[in-house]
Amino acid sequence: MTTTAEPRVARRRPVRRTGAAVVRPGFVWAVPATLFFLIFAVLPLILVAVLSFASWDGISAPRFAGLDNWRTLIHDHVMIQSLWLSVLITVLGVVVQTPLSILLGVWAAGHQRNRAVLSAIYFVPLLLSATAVSILWRALLDPNFGVPAQAKWLFGDGNLFGRQTSAIGVLVFVGAWQYTPFHTLIYQGAARAIPQVLYQAAEIDGAGRVRQFWHITLPQLRNTMITSMILMVVGGLTTFDTVLILTQGGPGTDTTISAYYMYQRAFKSFDFGGGSAIALVLVLIATVISLIVVKVSGYDKMRGTTEGL
User: Fold this and answer.
1) I want to staple 155 with a disulfide (CB 3.0 to 4.6 A). Which of 36, 100, 148, 262 is the partner?
2) Which residues lie across from 54 on neighbouring strands?
């Protein structure tokens, strides 16, 4: 009886793909960034929190004051007003900058040459510091020598900084002029990442550009929109140099936002304990608002289609 041996199946060794495989970096790569964050963010925040319970004039040794700084803030009407003004200017900034950024970002995502040139010109304010921008607009809006003085038919007496409503409007306008290009750049990159096959399928179904924008572009920009709004909230609550140069908190205290009031308490009144308490309040408010935006929008439950390295 003859037996036939079964053919041996050669086992192939697994091919090691170095180019296509996704290799996650080790924890060591995160150590420099972690140390930088701990030294320049967490440690100063802890020191500010400790200083908010102390009395310090910046010269003598700090003295423990308990809850005195916090009791003073609770009964300080300027502090309460500054918080409402900070929230108001932040909300107005989000309302103005978000639609402009989305429309300009989607438009700038095109590949035509004229769009690239105009986008490069439009992004020029990103190269300027907030101080330079504030000085520029302070000169342009000067009630004696600026544009309002030459166009009183439009600006009335020309003193835009003499009334609370117009002064707040100037702060919102200058902030939007400088920071809208930044958020436009974010939306431009996000719009270019949207798969073109979605628009091609919509064109086959007969959808025009308006319907494509509402039913494809905006839903695809949802994650980017939440990120941009959080950045606007944090930036709006910490605005300082624009108020310092343009209005100096005036007229009176009508534009004294919390960040500027913190500067007045700490560096003008030499009450660094009270200024630290205001700073801690701003951190808490910005954190709470950001968490609320993340929770309400469902951003914490969103997942990307691909994983990063």
Assistant:
1) 148
2) 64
